[in-house]
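Justification of computing resources. Each target in the renewal requires a structure prediction run like the one illustrated here; the chain below, 727 residues long, is used simply to show the kind of job we budget for.
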Amino acid sequence: MLPPLVGIACGALGTLLIAYGFGVALLRKLPAPPEIALALGAVAESFLIFFLLLAKLGHWYAFAALAAAAGACWKICPRVPLAEAAKRPLGKGWIAAAAALGAYGIWYFINALAPEVRADGISYHLGLPYEYVRLGGFPSRITFYDMVPQGMEMLYTAAFSVGRHSAAKLVEFAFFLATLPLFFRMGRRLQMSDLASLVAAAFYFCAPVAGVTGASSYNDAAGVFFALAAFYLLLVWRDTGESRYLLPAGALAGFCFAIKSPGAMVAVAAVLLVLWFARAIRPAAVVALGAALVMAPWLVRNALLTGNPLAPLLNSVFPNPYFHAATERELGAVLRSFGDVAPWRVPWQLAFGDKFQGTFGPLLLALPLGLVALRRRAGRWCWTAAALLAVPWFWNTGARFLMPSVAVAGLALGMALPGPAAWAAVILQAALSWPQVIGLRDTPYTFRLHEFPLAAALRREPETAYLSRTSGEFQVAQMIEAKTPPDAKILALVTVANAYLARDVRVAWQSAEGDVLLDALRLAGVNTEPMFAWKTNWPIDVYTSLRIVLPQSSKFECDIDELRIYSGDDLVYTSPHWTARAWPNAWETPLALDGYLATRWRTWQPVRAGNYFEVAFDRPQRISSLAVYSHAPALGFHPEVYGMPAGQNADKPTWHDLGPLLSQRLPPEDLRLQATRAIRRAGYGYLLAPTGAGGAAPIGNAILGEEGLWGLAQVGRAGPYYLFRVK
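Resulting structure tokens:
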């Protein structure tokens, strides 16, 4: 086994050299700077790793073969020399600026070299690559993060296979660092001075939110790099008229979607900007084609696996059995909310506060000065691109989602400031964004870099010791590994550090199955809504189907916990050969016929007039009544019930009204064992639950001390998190 630092270097450099080698091959006939070769080659590398994982060939030796192929490309393919602008002498101001940015770079590098502790990094950005390396391919499950585009995670997988977590982080850091020269190259294409470009570079590079993402496995900094690379190629095309730049530009723009779904706006912006420049459809179509080719693998994979090409989003447009539109709506409402921040205070919070998970520093408040640049064509281009790139922020108000827009708007700001003001802006951003300066005025919990973990980065402090000291999630992961067998399947009511956990852990909210099980636990443990039974009866007769219809729309959901059908006084037992149908949510109809009140069929969306639940029998049944167990009567629903008599003309069946359903409130029933049986029936052997306050903690509180009544046994604890074995 390689020493840790050697493995980290090999993993990171190997991944980057593969990208650069492929980039040289792809750009062998085009003059382009090294950053563009790195970017385009990374797109190709990510694409190839995707197919290696599909083929279950995601092992180190496959990545070594990629390295050999990239090395051959690098050696064989000639490079077209890039015409450089005339060199300018560097004054003392430039040396000072380089020193300031260099100090930030060292700070970022040490943090990137240290083990990963950031929440999204340890949960899925590196949790997924760890699993891909262990399995050699994609897992068979379908959950929220399994379905999001993973362009950067493909690159992380190659780096992780050799150098583990820090190697993957350094890949992100390399793209973050490579963004700096792109600011100057774009500035020269926009006929800006290098000082104006420096304003944009310092604004972005010193921004605390950019630093924390660029020095971790968050992929937002990479998204900015690929967006600027795409726009740079569009500027080269504009200046040279060579259409050969359009397809690579489209590919780089499309890769922004492959990194993160909101990156689709980069592709949209690229197409619109080409239309603006060219006033012609053909060049825009070439850019769109390049973007589509890179986006297609993720869209096609999602469509084949779930029926929704944009899974895990837009489930109301593409209904499927894997994700609930209601969960997506709830998540979306949280992500786009301003919380308790008044709209007029949003700029201040993005500059200095932490209500939006990250800050940009003082120059964000100076951006209105950049509107002066609208007098120039280049300024109008920058502001148009910035406005388009800001659109996704309105669906997710995290500061990270403004990074591409702010990077481009920074160019407009630099363009508008005269020399002395530009130098003052650079100094102000660098000074007030320095971590120790920020520490004088904010709490230690803000989303930024807080420490200089040199000992952990150099592995003088062992990785386990550092993670145990800094990450509670790591302690939970260690507990789970110690208390469960390797083949354990665990239902978690909280997010876990999958990047340090070699177990199949599925977080409840990340799939429809998890929603159902979490719903069962809530019904059994913390629900206070009363249960009712809708009942009706009619003269006994022979029927082939029954249908329950909701004739009126409502702002509420409707549920059927259990449907029980009687023939006289005898219960008609359900058969696996019965066919249940519903609109909406046809996939979960068996939950209303499984004998458990803890599991239920739900519409998972506000009721629309005509929604129904239907049961078709495998053979005609003599029936006289039914009971529908539900919480919905408390919400004012008045369903109707219809039967399909036997012996009807199959071409013209007629539903018969079977009379009104009358509701009756039922006494509370202990559903705890039913909820646990549903978990076991779904294949889970363990349950991880939090205690305390907030989120799913009330469920953990209800279980703790009453494990026997739930059919659970406590097997582990890490702080407020408890691990239970399902008996």
